[in-house]
Amino acid sequence: MNEKLNMNVRILIGESLSIDDLNVLSLLYMPIIGSRAYTLYMTMYSALNRSSNTRVVLVSDIVDLFGIKIATFELERKRLEAIGLMATYFKDNEYVFLLKAPLSARHFFNDCILGAYLKNKVGEVLFNKLVNLFRLESFNKEGYKNITEVFENVFRDNIDETIEKQDGYLIDKQINSSIKTGKFEFDYDYFLTSLNLGIAKKNSLSAEFQTIVEKTAYMFNLNEEEMVVVYHRSLDQAGNFAITRLQKEAKSFKKRKENESKSEGVVGDDRIRYMDPKAILKLMRPEASIEDYNVIEKVANDSPFNSEITNVAILHGIKKNKNEFLEAGYFFKVFQTFEKYNIKSFDDALKFVMAQGNYDENETKKVPTKRNIEQQPEKKIVRKSEWLKNFLDESSKED
Question: pTM of the entire structure?
Fold first, then answer.
């Protein structure tokens, strides 16, 4: 530990802080990182040699100045790194701290991690007050004439000189890359495929959309299939997408997921509705062969039902054949049964296979309790109904 105290710290900056930067740091960043990390950041900026934007000090100088232990210094340093205000490098017993300017207020509030984290930290009332503090009054140009002069009318001299591109570090204003999220794995391509969007819709999705989805997934610890559900729930009736709705639905999904006690291998209803058939197979049978995937693809393509009802049939078929090779014929028997009993909707199909499970001793899905049935009247399962008895009787004869 004493060796670390004697190490050099080289502090570098790429740009100076503006008044707006200082306001963002004190009002938006400090509630998240705490006053000690904020003071450390500001002190390192103050200690810089302005002629070169760099300064070399010892680690012991920093901890002595703040009257803190080196473990505390390491903790506050990591806070600054994690929130995107500093990058740290190490070589030959020397630290290099590259200080970064904060995000603009607009980018901070619209960042689906930082904005949401601040709101959670200070509460909705104070958060809205902070937003209003940084809000600019818009200028209504109606009735005004733009009389701004153009360059060539004022600076009339001919320019004969040419300039070369200037390399190296110059004082500039860069967009902070925001927080460091670590090695969170999210397969965006797999997510996109699972959305089942048309080609035109897929091509209209921007890089910004990908960033929003990945950050939201990171913040709420949701996988690709769960984000598919969140995405569809966030669309309005016209199919329009909004960041705020996505974050709200992601938070709601996470909360439900934490409160639910699910049986092993059971897939949530909403996930079934929107999942790609191959994603269902991947989830239910990780060891599935290429032949299994080919069967599922054929079943999905040749199904007489829409994708939602087809997904229920596929899930049901996979669950019923856990230890067997998948055969397309079994799934088409399920389709025929659905047609026989006039299954017209996703809810009908789900209720049908769940009700069958209540009479099947080999079914692993937990039987809904009376209380659960009462809480979901629209999906209430009628026990020992005539159509179910007939179906089970016919199924037992076939076996």
Answer: 0.49
